[in-house]
Design goal:
Elements lengths: L4 E5 L11 H4 L4 H12 L4 E5 L3 H12 L5 E5 L8 H8 L5 E5 L21 E4 L5 H18 L1
Parallel strand pairs: 1-2, 1-3, 3-4, 4-5
Helix pairs in contact: 2-5, 3-4
The structure holds ligand CA2.
């Protein structure tokens, strides 16, 4: 059975598409999920969102226990605050893509210091909701490369 790609989304992203379209676009999270599934083709996708830090930590643990799985994570505000998520991701032995819809580096200083970047294999930021499709395609490559090794 093919291992899934986990797409984990942090706080407030359940409300995507409802405000600040100039920064985040008007695509909803339900539409983002569909975009991820299309980009993944036959590869299963575990698409999740939570406003609770511990739940995201638990999902990273779940992914650790699925050999061959990859993680795409938009930790939202937890990007800059969560040592718990950082510690969980440190235990993940396969590719991690950190994703942001907006280009966090063009924004206010509070959005500049990502803890998650310290353990991410790659970072995608600023492509809008389409970044999820780009992240999924890149993840399929990374996971295939990791399998060959
Ligand atoms: O650009 C991103 O994807 C972010 O991870 C989004 C986070 C922000 O804290 C990060 O710095 C960058 C904020 C998510 C806010 O959720 C929204 C809810 C409704 C409409 C738009 C955004």
């Amino acid at each position: 059975m093919t291992a899934p790609i986990y797409v984990l989304n942090g706080p407030n992203l359940n409300r995507l598409g409802t405000r600040e379209p100039e920064i985040y676009g008007s695509t909803t999270l339900v539409e983002v999920e569909a975009l991820c599934r299309t980009a993944a083709g036959d590869v299963p996708v575990e698409f999740r969102q939570s406003n609770r830090e511990y739940e995201i930590v638990d999902w990273v643990h779940e992914a650790i226990d699925r050999p061959g799985a990859g993680i795409i994570i938009n930790p939202a505000a937890f990007t800059f605050t969560s040592i718990a998520i950082l510690d969980a991701l440190k235990m993940f032995p396969r590719p991690i893509i950190e994703l942001h819809i907006s280009n966090i580096h063009r924004r206010e200083d509070i959005y500049h210091n990502s803890l998650v970047s310290k353990v991410a294999t790659a970072v995608i930021a600023g492509l809008g909701p389409k970044g999820y499709g780009a992240a999924m395609r890149a993840m399929l490559d990374l996971v295939a490369d990791a399998k060959r090794r």
